[in-house]
Amino acid sequence: MIKNNILVSFFSSLVTVSLSFLVFSYIHLDEDEQNDAGKPHSARSLATDRLTENTINSMKDSIDDILISQQQLLEKNQVLQQKIAQLELMDNYPSSQTQSEKNYTTQFNVSSHINMTQEEFDGANENNRSEHFERVKEEFLLEQYDSAWASEMDSSLADVTQRLKALDLGDISITNKDCRSSSCLVEFSHQDNIDQSVLSATLAAAGTSEIVLKHINDEGNDKTIVIYRR
Amino acid sequence: MTAINNIISTKSILIITLLFSTPSFAEDWAISATGSCAPVLGNTITSGGGLKASGGTAVVRCPLTREVGSNTINNVYARMKRNSASGADPFCNIISTSHYGTPSNLGYGFATDTTANQSVSISLPTQYSSGYADVSCVLNSGDTLYGIRYRQDN
Fold first, then answer.
1. DSSP letter string over A6-41?
2. In chain A, which residue's Cα lies nearest the Cα of B125?
3. Which domains does chain B have, with CATH numbers?
């Protein structure tokens, strides 16, 4: 977070400096033109006029360059802000674990950096995963329907089903599907003894880039709810 | 002169700005499939410097054993070759292993080129956190995974 804040401050400072300089340059340009306006034209040589014109053109080019780089900086700043927002969303999660922390957790069965027992640690993780899923689901529910994409996803999901059969992971079927503008919520019903790690790794569908999923037991039936995101 | 000075200052600031805005990478490394990956489902054979799925679909897991950052991670690529006869696109997932338990958020990329070796860019999941990561690939019969390349911003 500190590194990000420093980066954001740095980029903000650069943007501020660029803006200040831009304003300063325009003011000076204006002043020069005003000073020259009072003199008779004959007092200025043709060469000076050309030099001034070239100088002004160069300045305009430079200002254009600055505007472009300023735009790039603003875009970078926006990307950083998005990353910070993502990090803030994950603030509830245990922060980064170093190798020593990982070893410590394994050796003593205690999460050292947040001073929890392993059970509490796992419980917190489960809650965080569940919260993340619910957040993504809420976003999904706010989306509009997209029949064209739903149709494309039908084909992609048929490939997923075929893949699951080829891997012989047991009886798996899609029991519900709802596609909106950029996400699809799909319910897979399967046996309770399925290897969930392997199942998760095999669910990718063409035309999407990410899945958020949750395993549930619905009145004795094991299901995996998957939200596919474009 | 004031205008010329302004131009010089402008260009200096421009150069400094561009210099600092140029992306650089703190880490850029790769692991080989034959040395770091293993099948968790199905069968693979070593072929041409990679792991090739044989006799059906296989799921191959490659743990990234170096620590990676959540806010700085930039790109993860899988170097692979698709066997055009398999009829389906192989793909690779990435998941952060900082969250213990069942994976709940995975990003992935598909290999669509059927003619040559290719680097598949794996999308990063939004719930990615600092720590360790796993890449797992689903290969159809004849598809080959050569390795994983990881690149991280400063």
1. HHHHHHHHHHHHHHHHHHHHHHHHHHHHHHHHTS-G
2. A210
3. 24-153 (2.60.120.260)
